[in-house]
Every structure is written in structure tokens, then in C-alpha cells.
Amino acid sequence: MVRPPTQAQLRAAGKRVVILSNYAGRAEVQRRRLRGIGIDPYHVDGVVTSGEIAHRYLSRYQDKLGCRVLWIAWPKLEQRGLSDYFSELEDYKLVKDVAEADFLLVSGVGTLYAGTDAAKGMRFEKDGDPVPFEPMFRAAIHASKPMVCANPDHKVVRPGGWRAHLPGALAEHFERLGGRVIYFGKPYTSAFEEVRRIFDDLSAGGRICHIGDSLHHDVGGATTAGFDAAFVVRTGIHAKDLPKEPNFEDIFQLCRKQKTPVPAAVVPRFTW
């Protein structure tokens, strides 16, 4: 969460702000949800989501992918902002059997056959066990059906401190079994280039600092794309991997362990 005073100070200092999120829904939906996560949309110049980039891909490449989708998502799609995801993808059809599908779309990990009357709850978010998905995955791989991953995150810290397993981890298992995955979002350069285009349109200059708490998705992705990266250490997925007051050696060793670049800056929290 970005605290309101921080947002106002950035605006007062003339800084442009773009939110880059591995949210599996549309960018406009994420903009409407910003207040709920403590961000004032007034101080945001643009929103880029992995789900928006994936949606654009689906709209352009139906001939390549096919139109029958086996969707892995979340229960209560409306609460997640996903209930209208296919409203502008009218030619796509959600199916409830891998044999009928042309490809798999992973937007969440809580529901198999999402959007159909065969929707089935899954426990992967809490237990991280991909085995219940394996029969369906193996059938898809045997038939050379790809997976589109609209959220490459592996884990996130939920309220209460527990670590939830996310779509990126499920997609990675699909790859380990021999499947092909098409990823959208951080750490992939296409997501950061989308941000760069927004800044270019705003004539904001080329000095961009990406701020995030994941060494792989934020620091690694930003550095590869040519952005500076500020690593948030007190909150997020690496908070328990570091001492309360980490020094440079602590950061360096964690980056070495995670096989990521060293960030340009380290901040306890994203506050002014």
C-alpha cells in the first residue's frame, strides 16, 4: 500500500506515477479498485495490469490460439473484478473439459473450469500442491495445448502474514511437466515497456524508478528493462528473508541467493 501523504508528496514534487500490477483483470477495473488498497487515483497517471496485456493478446490472436478456453481463476469472480473479463472477447467460449479446450487461461488458482456450471474449488492458494491439477495439465500437454498466464506472481503475503500461492507458481509447474506457457506481466519486459510508453506520452522523461517488494518480479524485471529499481524490504514477500535492519551485505547475499540483480536503492517502506 502507498500511504496518501506519499502520493501527495510525489504529485507536489512533479513526479509522474504509473501503477504496474500483476493483477489478472482489466486496467480500468484496477483503477476503480485503487482506493480499496489505499491509493488515490487522482495521483495516478496510468495503470498497467498483466490482465490487460493478456486481454489485448487474446483479442488479437484468436486465430492463433483458438476460441475455446479452460479458465482457471478465483471463486466469486465479481469480487475479483473478473466477471466481465470476456465481455469484449465475444467469440471466446469457456469450456468445462480439457478435451474441448484450445488453451488454458490462468487468472487465479482457486477455481477450475471458472465461468461454467462445472466450476470446482481448488486449494492451491493455501497448500501450494499442484498435484490435483496434474491429470488435466498432462492431458493438455499431450494435446499440445498452451497455457496463457495472466498473473506471473508466485507468492504474496496475505493479511495475517500467511503466504498465498499464486498463478505464476501453477504455470511454472505446467512448464516443468513439459507444457508451453505464454506469460504477461512482471518480470517480462513487455510489461515495463508498456509503462515506458505511458511516460513517453506524458513527456515525463526517461529516468524511471520502479518500486516493489519482489526481487524476481520487480527488481529483476525493472533492471532488465533498463529502469532503476527500489527494493521495499520491511513489507512484502522478502520481509522474513532479511533482518529487521538489513545492511548492504544482507541485501547482496539475498540477491545472490535469488539470482537477481542488486537494486539501485533499498527502502524500508514506500513512504515519503
TrEMBL record:
<dbReference type="GO" id="GO:0016791">
    <property type="term" value="F:phosphatase activity"/>
</dbReference>
<dbReference type="Pfam" id="PF13242">
    <property type="entry name" value="Hydrolase_like"/>
</dbReference>
<dbReference type="GO" id="GO:0005737">
    <property type="term" value="C:cytoplasm"/>
</dbReference>
<dbReference type="InterPro" id="IPR036412">
    <property type="entry name" value="HAD-like_sf"/>
</dbReference>
<dbReference type="InterPro" id="IPR006357">
    <property type="entry name" value="HAD-SF_hydro_IIA"/>
</dbReference>
<protein>
    <submittedName>
        <fullName>Uncharacterized protein</fullName>
    </submittedName>
</protein>
<dbReference type="Pfam" id="PF13344">
    <property type="entry name" value="Hydrolase_6"/>
</dbReference>
<dbReference type="InterPro" id="IPR023214">
    <property type="entry name" value="HAD_sf"/>
</dbReference>
